[in-house]
Amino acid sequence: MALVKDNMLLQLVKGSLGGQLTIYERNGQIIMAKKRGPSRKKPTSKQMEARYKLMEAAAYAKEMLKDPELKAYYQSKAGPGQNAYNMAIKDAYRSPAVQQVKLEDDTVVVTAKDEFRVAAVEVRVLDAAGVILERGQAVLGRNGVDWSYVIANVAAGNKVIVVAADLPGNETVCEVQLE
Fold it and tell me: 36 and 44 in contact (C-beta within 8 Å)?
């Protein structure tokens, strides 16, 4: 790969030359690189999964960028040489992380993070038999990381299931047994 600077001839040239070189512009710079061809190997199952996941992420990105507010949000997260589309794909590719679930008196406090934004946290309380006793949406705290939910059924043997979701709808599930 070569960066081209101050070359009058290549200022107006874009595309492939003779099946050997590809010339394109990225972030205001002209780049010349060897032309890549398709692989001759059959893709592995992991490669197929990655392609499918990327295809879903690209479809999400195209849909989300139709919303001007979300497009502006993703653009604000973009660095040099990146755009809102790149950031939307990156967001769709990764799920949020539930770092901690703790019980403070009758309040479940969930620490959930995402590289972009955690959109919602749902808390479910189940009894020992697995029957849902209650469920509801947690409320985001002032620090922007901790989510709180007040539960009515605090009893030993109950199970708390936390589901954190980000803007693309990726979910992370975490279970905690009450003692």
Answer: no
pLDDT band of residue 23 (cuts 50, 70, 90) is confident
Read off φ and ψ for residue 69, nearest 5 degrees. Answer: -65, -45
DSSP states of 95-152 = --EEEEEEEETTEEEEEEE-SS-EEEEEEEEE-TTS-EEEEEE-EE-TTSSEEEEE-S
C-alpha 163/C-alpha 135 separation (Å) is: 11
Q: pTM for this one?
A: 0.71
Residue written as token pair 């999400």: 60
Q: Are 39 and 71 in contact, with CB atoms under 8 Å apart?
A: no
**Exposure pattern of 8-42 as b/e (b: 16+ CB <10 Å)?**
eeeeeeeeeeeeeebbeeeeeebebeeeeeeeeee
